[in-house]
Design brief:
Elements (H helix, E strand, L loop, with lengths): L18 E6 L3 E7 L6 E3 L9 E2 L2 E3 L5 E3 L1 H4 L9 E2 L10 H4 L9 E2 L10 E3 L2 E3 L1 H20 L5 E6 L5 H13 L3 E7 H8 L9 E9 L4 E9 L2 E10 L4 H15 L4 H6 L1 H17 L5 E6 L2 E6 H25 L9 E5 L6 H11 L12 H13 L16 E5 L3 E6 L7 E8 L7 E8 L9 E9 L11 E7 L5 E7 L5 E6 L7 H13 L1 H31 L5 H20 L2 H22 L2 H6 L3 E2 L1
Parallel strand pairs: 1-11, 11-12, 13-18, 21-27
Antiparallel strand pairs: 1-2, 2-3, 2-4, 5-6, 5-7, 8-9, 9-10, 13-14, 14-15, 16-17, 19-20, 19-22, 21-24, 22-23, 24-25, 25-26
The structure holds adenosine-5'-diphosphate and magnesium ion (MG).
Magnesium ion binds next to loops.
Length: 618
């Protein structure tokens, strides 16, 4: 559930600064703003009129990083160092991505664990947060260039189905890009706001938001009651979008022109040319009946009806998702009051017609479908800036609340600017075999290391029955009640032992102190995230060392002498590098060890190894 309309009189940096709305998309990203004089949301435009920044990052040889159209050029010719769809990796582990890893042409670091994924480019490892921050940084620079003023604060949108970890990752990316992220809001909520839905009091409406982008399809059913948005259901297909339209056209041409597949595999430039042509044809057919062009001297063409035949099965699939979303919300088509079209691919006439027929009503499609989400984010930003006077103001948490995890890292449970009352919970596990107690340290603040934050309370959860490390399930829950009192509860789920504590987070904290803490979190974001990445790499290395060593001990006799020997050497190497190396060297050493142990681990498939890697340790 998402609510909007927040008073940020506390918990924000310089009030007079502008706040931008950012649509951080899988395929394209863009920035929007409400100018104080016109009071209308507009998408920021470059001098050449372009608004969309492709969410693609290219890492050049000399360490040069480019983002956007320029980077997109390298997608097929330099697949290993050109990163697309970074948004799909946000808050995900390798285990989450395993089944879809073939979708990516670049290297996703396979550590066979539930740790967060990293992308390997040459010798360097990037987290999805770092990758997204590169896109956000580019957007920030462009916005500053266009607006001729520093851009420090933003509202960023995420899909309605994003979980806590994915939302937090998006916040972190913003922080790393030097942005104070005032709010993360749902994309369908933003789209509704862009059409003015949800801005009136005493309004109750049920809205379907149909979002067909480049690589993903989302249908969300929302209910607005008195300016508060609630997500009733979401459905869709995370691998269905305009890119699939392009591929359908590409395959059609390859067959029609009798182009040899092996020729395409060998000639990446031709493939790239065909792909871009296919996308061009698709776009042109949104407004024209026919497309004519040529490729390497041969004429090619596509009519709208040919195109519609190609994509009609894909469009049908989106309608099945719509049916499912309605069923999940326990609604029928007649219950829907408004339908909003979002995403560049809804420009395709067949898509519009099909959705109109399905819902049997006129669609909201007057705004540019690839801009509505950003426009709505700007509307939200304007409300947060306090410019929209007749909007209801709610109490919020001015600083993030969380606990200390391994290596002194801050794990945020309730992000700042959450409305009160707020509730959150997360599971943790033990670090050592037979560990009988766990120290829960509660902190407040925006920095990555707890030592830089404000300690609120600390207590011990004792009486955890002896179990191997990683097995206990300790659920830590945070509840901030209407009076601003935080209740922290820790409960070991297998045994039922629990412990709770109450604190007043705001006690003795002035507005100036809050502001100072926020400013510092932006100032130190870069170094903070580096320290976090190093600590995380070290923690991951320790875990892998622990499990590999105990695996080795148990299964020594099943391994060949050379397997035993090379593993021991890789272990030694990793131990050395944990102390002296940087995060990239540590990841490389982990990868080495994994490469050695993977074949025999798979051979012996010991459940305990994979099990023991689950869960974050305190
Ligand atoms: P995302 O939300 O995934 O970042 P967008 O909403 O920007 O993506 O949609 C991108 C998709 O829209 C691409 O597949 C692009 O080819 C497609 N698209 C853009 N303009 C048109 C058009 N005029 N006709 C058909 N498809 C279009
Ligand atoms: Mg989108």
């Amino acid at each position: 559930m998402a609510k909007i309309g927040i008073n940020i009189s506390t918990g924000s940096l310089q009030q007079q600064d502008i706040i931008v709305g950012i649509d951080l998309g899988t395929t394209n990203s863009l920035v929007s703003i409400i100018y104080p004089d016109t009071r209308e949301p507009v998408v920021l435009k470059e001098y050449d009129g372009s608004t969309l920044v492709p969410s693609v990052i290219h890492f050049g040889d000399s360490g040069k990083v480019t983002v956007g159209d320029e980077a997109k050029e390298y997608l097929i010719t330099e697949p290993f160092n050109t990163i697309f769809s970074a948004k799909r990796l946000m808050g995900k582990s390798y285990n989450d991505m395993r089944s879809v890893s073939s979708h990516f042409t670049y290297k996703i670091h396979d550590d066979n664990s539930d740790n967060l994924v990293k992308v390997q480019v040459g010798d360097l490892f990037y987290s999805p947060v770092e990758l997204s921050s590169l896109i956000l940084k580019e957007l920030k620079v462009r916005a500053e260039h266009i607006l001729k003023t520093p851009v420090k604060r933003a509202v960023i949108t995420v899909p309605a189905y994003f979980n806590d970890a994915q939302r937090q990752a998006t916040r972190d990316a913003g922080k790393l890009a030097g942005l104070d992220v005032l709010r993360i809001i749902n994309e369908p909520t933003a789209a509704s706001l862009a059409y003015g839905l949800g801005l009136k009091k005493d309004e109750t409406k049920t809205i379907a938001v149909y979002d067909l982008g480049g690589g993903t399809f989302d249908i969300s059913i929302l209910r607005i009651t008195n300016g508060v948005f609630e997500v009733l259901s979401t459905n869709g297909d995370t691998y269905l979008g305009g890119d699939d339209f392009d591929l359908a056209v590409l395959s059609y041409w390859v067959e029609k022109l009798k182009i040899d597949r092996s020729l395409l595999d060998a000639n990446k430039n031709l493939l790239q040319e065909l792909r871009l042509k296919a996308e061009g044809a698709k776009k042109e057919l949104s407004s024209m009946p026919d497309f004519y062009s040529e490729i390497s001297g041969s004429p090619i063409s596509l009519s709208r009806s040919e195109f519609e035949n190609l994509i009609s099965p894909l469009v049908s699939r989106t309608l099945t998702s719509c049916k499912n979303a309605l069923a999940d919300a326990q609604l029928s088509i007649g219950d829907i009051d408004e339908v909003i079209m979002v995403g560049g691919s809804t420009r395709v006439p067949l898509v519009k017609e099909s959705v109109e027929n399905f819902f049997q009503m006129k669609l909201h499609d007057s705004l540019n479908p690839d801009e509505v989400v950003a426009l709505g984010a700007a509307v939200q930003a304007d409300i947060l800036a306090g410019n929209n006077k007749d909007f209801l103001l709610l109490d919020i948490t001015p600083l993030s609340l969380g606990i200390e995890t391994m290596g002194g890292l801050m794990d945020v449970l309730i992000p700042r600017n959450s409305k009160i009352p707020a509730k959150a919970g997360r599971q943790y596990t033990t670090q050592k075999d037979g560990q009988g107690s766990m120290r829960i340290s509660v902190y407040q603040g925006e920095r990555d290391l707890v030592k830089d934050n404000r300690k609120l309370a600390e207590f011990n959860l004792s009486g955890i029955p002896g179990m191997p490390a990683g097995l206990p399930k300790v659920e830590v829950s945070f509840l901030v009640n209407a009076d601003g009192i935080l209740v922290v509860t820790a409960k070991e789920l297998r045994s039922g032992v629990q412990q709770a504590i109450e604190v007043r987070p705001q006690y003795g904290l002035t507005d100036a102190e809050v502001e100072k803490m926020l400013e510092e979190s932006i100032t130190y974001a870069q170094s903070d995230i580096q320290v976090r990445a190093l600590v995380e790499a070290q923690t991951e290395a320790e875990q892998i060392l622990g499990t590999t060593e105990s695996f080795l001990q148990k299964n020594k006799s099943f391994l060949s002498d050379s397997e035993n020997e090379t593993t021991k050497q890789a272990i030694l190497k990793l131990k050395q590098i944990i102390k002296t190396g940087n995060k990239d060297e540590i990841h490389a050493a982990i990868e080495k060890l994994n490469e050695i142990s993977r074949p025999y681990a798979e051979r012996l498939m010991d459940e305990a190894v994979t099990d023991a890697l689950k869960g974050k340790r305190i």
